[in-house]
Amino acid sequence: MKDLAVKVFRFDPECDESPHYQTYLVTVNEGARVLHVLHAIHDDHDPTLSYRYCCGSGQCGSCAVRVNGQPVLACMEEARDGSIIEPLDLPVVKDLVVDMEPYLRQISSLVPGEEFRMPTAEEVEEIKPLRSCIECLACVSACPALKVIDFAGPAAMREEMRLALDPRDSGDRVTEAVRDGLFTCTSCQACWKVCPKDIQIPGKAIEKLRALANKKGLTLPRHQEVSQLVRETGRSVTRTEPTFMEQVGEILEPYGPVKATVGFFVGCMYNQRLPQTAHDAMEVLRRNGIRVIIPKEQVCCGSPLIRTGQLDVLDTLKRRNIDAFVFRNIDTVLTMCAGCGSTLKNDYKTPFRVVDINELLTRYGIEPPARLPLKATYHDPCHLMRGQGIRDLPRELITQVVDLVEMPSICCGSGGGVRSGIPEEAAALAEMRRVEIEKTGADIVISSCPFCEFHIMEHTDRPVKNVTTLLLEGYREKDRKKASPEPC
Amino acid sequence: MRSDGVDTAHVLVIGSGGAGVRAAIEAAGYGETLLVSKTLAGKGGCTTMAEGGYNAVLREEDSCEIHFEDTLKGGAYLNDRDLVQTLVREAPERMADLLRWGAVFDVTDSCEVAQRPFGGQRFPRTCYAGDRTGHEMMATLIDRLDAAGARVENEVTIITLLQDGERVSGAIGLDKSGEMRIILADATVLATGGGTRIYDISTNSSSGTGDGYALAYKAGAELIDMEQVQFHPTGAVYPYDARGRLVTEAVRGEGGILKNSLGERFMGRYDPERMELSTRDVVSRAIATEILEGRGTEHGGVYLDVTHLERKQIETKLPVMLEQFLKFGVDIREEPMEVAPTAHHIMGGLRISPEGQTTVPGLYACGEVTGGVHGANRLGGNALADTQVFGKRAGEAAGRAQERRKEADQAVISAEENRISAFYDGDISPSTVVRSLRTAMWDGAGIFRTGPALEKTREIIIHLLMLRPRAASPANLAECCTVQNMLVTASLVVRGALLRKESRGAHVRQDIVQTWDMQHSPYGHTFLSRSREGIETEVQE
After folding, report:
1. Could you give the residue range(s) of every CATH 3.40.50.1860 domain in chain A?
2. ipTM over 0.90 threshold
3. Do the chains contact at B324 and A169, CB–CB below 8 Å?
4. In the 8-state DSSP scheme, what is residue A240?
5. How many CA atoms within 13 Å lie on the side-chain side of A473?
6. Topology annotation, domain A104-215
7. Mutate which of A57, A62, A117 to disrupt the B interface (most B C-beta within 10 Å)?
8. CA separation for the pair A305, A300 (Å, rounded)
9. In terms of residue numbers, what domain contains B260?
10. Which residues pair with A332 in a beta bridge?
11. Do A57 and B242 touch (CB under 8 A)?
């Protein structure tokens, strides 16, 4: 047996004006789950605590709650001392019980067609991963889009795709999905990462439905323009100044001894819109012994097309990009755009290793920068944190220069084609970021993705900088101090 | 239709597992149907947790006769033959319904429903969707329920059946804030599932509290074979709070083997022919014996091992098992599971006709709350089939019921109000009562039973029935009613066990020496109602 202290959200709309948190000290068995902590509170402390549960074995989806902010199944999540247990981010009925029914009702049902054909083994294999959903609504709780715009949500989109795959269904699932907000998903992957059944909703449902929508001519006009641009220029954004690649040579030698050689996949945003940030990164790499090769024939990675379901030129892009690096015998390709990195790692089969710049710099270690007297907050790019599993590394770099104040990791709204396709949604999500940034009291915002940086910049009055720009400022401060040492 | 706090429907279905939802789908074709669920419909009950599969004769090489014989033999010949005939004959048709409505079962390369071997069956006739078969069925049924136009009331706990004379005319429930709900209906279908939550170690969901047995018993219905409680051979043993969690028979169906702490594949000593795929009563006793005789594992179980199987087979055929054990730190591809028996299914229950008619007019029943289909031991895979076959039949019979004038009996309602408001003055926490009950049942009415131990258990239950559970708030009233239902169900199990003075199927009386084998037992069903109790003694054919 062991003792745990947990803080639990309590709210009875019948008599409480506002929610409060109650701390309980409970005695539970070794290996107890969060659900057993709730049982212990209910049985031994306060029988009025309301919470839902049923199967106790992760199969019915009744008991999802948030533990330290993360949606989990109470029956499967191991209970830990000091946890904060809250309801899902849905309308609260009482305490940990939320109103699930409106969301469950939005999930479509199969409508048998006139003719019956059993799905084939291949079709079953395709449907199965989408079918293991237990409708716990952890994904709905985590989805940023449906907090700011009409969207049936990830669980419902998953079912639309499952139905679209089933030969027995007679519904027009693609049109239905578009109507219910298919294009509002920002590809942030939050739904997948909290799914207790590990259902890859963005990749296996949303993007697939968008590809089907594309075949039906339902792609948003703004997304079609992006596709047109890629076909014509090889780039997904227009240029506003000389591009990064036009300004640099093909090989950048480090200032000191070579620790490693990498090929640099620049990405459309850093090449066309934020070349200075890419220059800053190169300067940091050169100071830290990294030799950089920049093949000039590289093109857009295709991410904006994959996310929006426009796959016709994708294979050409992939081949050109892979060839550009293979031709130069490059075994490690560096990305500094989180979106490109995630795409190369997850949507490509590359004969070379792909590393994000945060991984590269922490792997080889960096020359210590000087500290700057600033308080910073960090915005986790979705395609870095969830797409590549990189959360701590940028923080390791940032805290060498400035003090870091955390804020919740939520999508800024720029991904998945939402910034171009549904700008009002992108703006609403960025506004939520602005509020969180404000709450931290930070002087600057750091991130590690050009889409996030560009988008957040438009919505906050604080400077938004890339991790490498911050490092470079630390180095410049160091150089300045060295050049004119302060009098003792 | 609702007016003045009274809700009316042609058919009221109580319970939202496989049987209840199937009944509601069928009944909705005849008139306004209201399904009342203690949980969110589709999430409660045990169907959604059923992992292994659904038995149905689908192949030329198989036959309904063999399925019938397997079921009877597995049930130690205590089964009601008419019900078994109905089950085996209609299981394939009900499977076809599910497929038509969109169920995603595993299929063979030639697009036929795939089948796996299960215990006690001479043909691999268990259809499956990986190891989440019941979940697949529930997802399909809930879809269909929507389309069928039945109304659903979620999170309302039925606490008593209303009667007009003897005839059941609806029910009284409590919603989640403790408000009383009156529902009047021409016919009522009880599909409340099982009740092995009365045991300390159980596979059941939180709703497996035996409410249906208690509600029907109080309404005068007759129950049969309540002593027949199936202990599933393989439940998880640790961590402590996860003990009893079902480890599907599909693990053995896919080739998993059982070993004791000495590494012996001990089933050879108990059933050398069928080994791990013997019937559940036999495997459970074998495991319990190994543990009792000191050949158990560190956590008090035996090993269930699939590490010799292809990783891919484990990942695709047993994904839920893999995921659950990984959550508890065991990779079943690399190391064996530890398992021990766990209370799983009550074979006994309401006496029904093949149409699902109970012994009380106006009351129909289907699924685990009924008795007779599975005899003294249920075959794995027959319960899911049971829910569909008898769910449809009960829904249909209820749907055909005559329209009646619906009037609530104010006296009954006031009496019920008084009964529940007394819980505010109770003096013991409901969870304390439940804890005592569970321990008593596990110790005294478990896998191995004796007359004296059963008597002692009965005394404990009588004592617990006299305690007054306390409701801390209106929302806790239903909990108090549930505790009382659990006590009534437990007393029925114990009374049945005392009545059956033989070992038969899952029911083992160590204090009785018998000279007959199962097929030649002089005994038939035990029966219990408010007006009579006993054991049938006509000699079985």
Report:
1. 236-363, 366-483
2. yes
3. no
4. S
5. 18
6. Fumarate Reductase Iron-sulfur Protein; Chain B, domain 2 (1.10.1060)
7. A57
8. 10
9. 234-341
10. A353
11. yes
CATH fold group of domain A366-483: Rossmann fold (3.40.50)
Alpha carbons A235 and A301: distance in angstroms, whole number? 9
CATH number of the domain at B273, please: 3.90.700.10
Query: For B461-483, how does the pLDDT look when each residue is reduced to its tens digit (9 = 90+)?
Result: 999 999 999 999 999 999 999 99
Q: How far is A67 from chain B (nearest CA, A)?
A: 16
Which chain B positions have a beta carbon within 8 Å of A134's beta carbon? 135
Give the length of chain B.
541
Active site residue B252: yes
Q: CATH number of the domain at A2-98, please?
A: 3.10.20.30
Which residue of chain B is at minimal alpha-carbon distance from A58?
B324
Q: Cα(A21)–Cα(A160) distance, rounded to whole angstroms? A: 38
Q: Which residues of chain B make contact with A54, given a CB cutoff of 8 A?
A: 39, 43-44, 205-207
Residuewise pLDDT in 10s, chain B (541 residues): 555 579 999 999 999 999 999 999 999 999 999 999 999 999 999 999 998 899 999 999 999 999 999 999 999 999 999 999 999 999 999 999 999 999 999 999 999 999 999 999 999 999 999 989 999 999 999 999 989 999 999 999 999 999 999 999 999 999 999 999 999 999 999 999 999 999 999 999 999 999 999 999 999 999 999 999 999 999 999 889 989 999 999 999 999 999 999 999 999 999 999 999 999 999 999 999 999 999 999 999 999 999 999 999 999 999 889 988 998 889 999 999 999 999 999 999 999 999 999 999 999 999 999 999 999 999 999 999 999 999 999 999 999 999 998 888 888 899 999 999 999 999 999 999 999 999 999 999 999 999 999 999 999 999 999 999 999 999 999 999 999 999 999 999 999 999 999 999 999 999 999 999 989 999 999 999 999 999 999 754 4
The Cβ of residue A363 has, within 10 Å, a number of other Cβ atoms equal to: 11
Residue B534 lies in a domain: no
Q: Which of B104, B238, B430 sits opposite A31 (nearest CB)?
A: B238
- Structural tokens at position A70: 């993360």
- Kindly state the tokens that stand for A359: 């991984």
* Cα separation, A190 vs B146, whole angstroms: 30
- Domains of chain B: total: 2
Shortest Cα–Cα distance, A151 to chain B (Å) = 21
State both tokens at B469.
Answer: 């559970």
In a domain, B298, yes or no: yes
Find the closest chain B residue to A197 by CA distance: B323
Nearest residue of A to residue B433, measured between CA atoms: A43
Mutate to test the interface with A, among B140, B245, B326, B327 (most CBs of A within 10 A): B327
- Give the gap in angstroms from C-alpha B361 to the nearest C-alpha of chain A: 32
Q: Give B114's DSSP letter.
A: P
Q: What share of chain A is helix, strand, coil (3-state, %, to 5)?
A: 45, 15, 45
Task: Please give the interface size between A and B, counted as residue pairs whose CB atoms are below 8 Å apart.
Answer: 140
B232 as an active site residue: the answer is yes
Nearest Cβ partner for B40 among A14, A100, A169: A100
- List chain B residues with CB under 8 Å of A121: 107-109, 111
Domain boundary among B321, B341, B361: B341
Q: Do B104 and A127 touch (CB under 8 A)?
A: yes
For strands B180-190 and B363-365, give the pairing. parallel
Q: What does the pLDDT look like over B130-155, one tens digit per residue?
A: 989 999 999 999 999 989 999 999 99
CB contact (8 A) between residue B327 and residue A101: no
Top-level CATH class of A236-363?
Answer: alpha beta
**Residue B1: per-residue pLDDT:** 53
What residue spans in chain A does CATH classification 1.10.1060.10 cover?
104-215
List chain A residues with CB under 8 Å of B100.
112, 116, 168
Helices (H), B306-429: 311-317, 319-327, 382-399, 410-421
